[in-house]
Amino acid sequence: MATTRQPLVAGNWKMNGFAVSVSELAGIIEGAASLNGKAGMMVCPPATLVAAFAGRAKGTVLAIGGQDCHAKENGAFTGDISAEMLRDAGASAVIVGHSERRQYHAETDADVSAKAQAAWRAGLMAIVCVGETRDERVSGKALDVVGTQLAGSLPDGCTTANLVVAYEPVWAIGTGLTPTAQDVAEMHNFIRQQLVARFPAAGEGVRILYGGSVKPANAKELMGVPNVDGALVGGASLKAADFMGIAGVYR
Ligand code: PEP
Q1: 141 vs 104: CA distance, rounded Å
Q2: How many Cα atoms within 13 Å fall on the side-chain side of residue 78?
Q3: Protein residue with least CA distance to atom 6, ligand 1
Q4: Average pLDDT, the chain
Q5: What are the two backbone dihedrals, phi and then psi, of residue 227, each rounded to the nearest 5 degrees?
Q6: pLDDT confidence of 2, banded at 50, 70, 90?
Q7: Ranges of each domain in the chain
Q8: What is residue 88's predicted lDDT score, i.e. its pLDDT?
């Protein structure tokens, strides 16, 4: 029997947005409802806006996520936020291991794995990001690099509900560049094989998102690639019209 995976289109707002941005959610909530369950939608605002966004999205099909969490539940970690705090603010998921966290905060695969476990401890879905740099792709190491990241960043104990993997080539994030559909297909097929080998029960049902310069103009092609179960969208998720131009491919 073929496994059905509900696609997910998640927006990563990064360090963008003020209280006034909650008004942008109206169009996203309306758009999410118009998908009639053919795909799920999520917005991951900065931590300052999680509670306000979750309050606005309550009772709708739009999910709200965080962009990072600390591995510990609480303690003397100035400036950090725990998975439990995100949950308390109304989030149902958290992105961990985004390349900007790996690059600017020196997060290792072990750190990412600990954060994913923290997400599960708090009852959040973990969106675990992996992806190679330009040099790694050019030198033919993309699959090896992503395989190593997966092995180190994914804790044991995943289910189809608590884990989403996002393949985000670092060189495609915010650059307007994207891999070819063939390269995306090869990588997503590779990630699927890794998931199935390591998690025989859940691997086939875990969703694998593509992220990196997804726009309304390229969404149809990218989302049509086998084993691409949706998108993690940065810049184009800030405006409801652009974000729905992407998620709308699932209507
Ligand atoms: C991201 O930051 O996760 C991302 C995919 O960004 P962008 O869509 O802007 O490339």
Answers
A1: 22
A2: 0
A3: 234
A4: 97
A5: 70, 10
A6: low
A7: 8-15+24-31+39-69+93-250
A8: 98
Active site residue: 98, 100, 136, 188, which one?
A: 98
CA of 1 to the centre of ligand 1 (A): 34
Active-site residue, 70 included: no
pLDDT tens for 126-156 read 999 999 999 999 999 999 999 999 999 999 9
Nearest of 134, 153, 143 to residue 212 by alpha carbon: 134
Q: How many CA atoms does the CB half-sphere of 159 hold within 13 Å? A: 7
Tell how far the Cα of 179 is from the centroid of ligand 1, in angstroms.
14
Q: What is the pTM of this model?
A: 0.98
Taking CA atoms only, the protein residue closest to ligand 1 atom 7 is 234
Write the CATH number of the domain with boundaries 8-15+24-31+39-69+93-250. Answer: 3.20.20.70
Expressed in angstroms and rounded, the spacing between residue 18 Cα and the centre of ligand 1 is 19
- Mutating to test ligand 1, I would choose from 167, 214, 218, 239 the residue with most ligand atoms within 8 A of its C-beta, which is 214
Give pLDDT, residue 3: 73
Average pLDDT rounded to a whole number, residues 44-61: 98
Spatial neighbors of 242 by CB under 8 A, at least 6 apart, are 215, 216, 236
- Where does ligand 1 bind, in terms of residues with CB under 6 Å? 12, 168, 173-174, 211-214, 232-236
Identify the residue whose tokens are 């670092």. 170
> What tokens appear for 78 in the block?
């100035």
- As a whole number of angstroms, the distance between CA 79 and CA 70 comes to 10
Reply yes or no on whether 188 is catalytic.
Answer: no
CA of 149 from ligand 1 middle (Å) equals: 19
Cβ contacts of residue 240 below 8 Å, gap of 6+? 24, 25, 26, 27, 28, 31
